[in-house]
Amino acid sequence: MKIIDAAFRSNVLFSYGSQALKLALGFAWATLLVKQAGIELYGAITLLTALAAMTSALLTFRTNEAVVQFHRLAEHQGDHGMARLALLAGLALDAIGACVILVSAYLLAPLISKLLLKDAALAPSVELYSWVMVAIFVRGTGIGLLAARDRFKVINVFIVMEQLGKLLILIWMLYIGIELSLENIVWVILLVTGFTTACLLGLVSSELVASAGQVLPLSELRRYFRFTVSTFVSSSLKAATQNVDSLIVGGVAGPASAGFYGLIKQFLSPLLILVGPFTEQIHPRFVSAVADKRFVDILQTITDVGTKIWKWSAVLSLCISVAISIYWVTVGLPMTATNVLAFVFLLASTLLLQQLWWTRGLALSINPGISIRANVYYGLVMLSAVTTLAMLFGLAGGACGVLVTSVVIVLYWRGILRKWLPSTGSRVAS
Hints:
By secondary structure, the chain is mainly α.
């Protein structure tokens, strides 16, 4: 049986459509904020979003991946008790992490508003945004349950509806004349995010009710938590640098530069859409393939998908370059040499990182320690390169630091693949 079959391709195509719709809605959201409230408010939202993503990833136990791993294996083995255990353990870990995030955010809100947003008066908005972080954090088990059952179409529907909800509420606010302050925008995000999370928690609850009475294999808890600790260490190391480039640029050059940086990343997001569905959906397939020792199929999948990604990305990169030029002129943003260089560096970095779409899914299926080492190297290079170059050259320097980091991590994974399959590693990774 092929790793990428008709059902996988159907999910990928659906994901492309939903991600494209999400991207269009995101551009509309960003454009309205920039034109109606200014680049600084959009920059503040970008900084809070980056901080939330980094903090959530830093503290998360990656319950979505643990649920995928153990729920998928449980279904493969017909062990309904282990499937129920995976959900209960995931909910418990999500709740613990959410409490830590909430308390930490409230304690650090004055410092974050002063140092990151450059305005101590925005502390209440930071405290409010902590509830957005909680809502995002506790949905991990629900996402994992859907992913374990290959219900990626449902996940994508939730994503699109969330983005659409934010846009519609923002338009309604403009229509009736509500002020577009940072606090009001955070309320919009919280309302929509909270609704999505409530739906996902309801899904998990219904699954638990349906499986009530199943005997829990408590002996599997040790293996579950060992896997969770490994993914926690890996994701925490990655989180230490994930989105830190946006935070560094914002901290060094101010919210306006963070806003430009966020807009550039927004334009480059179609390149991530190309690989996003494969990255999200390959883990459960790799779990089954590794269990059956189908390593040749895994290798061929990496090769075939990587080749297609290069071809699609070349065309898409040209379209993005033209689109961002037109956008900046239309909206009235300055197309300076610094902004252009930042775009070029981030484009090159994104193209390199696309080729690593397979790394986490395969590492989790074989040995999570591989990702831990990769994230250590990535973190050391990211922090040193981005910080140093951003302090020297501002926005463009930070983007250049991201490119340097991408080159290093691609070389690392090429070495890993050569070591795993020496005769074919360079062909796959190149």
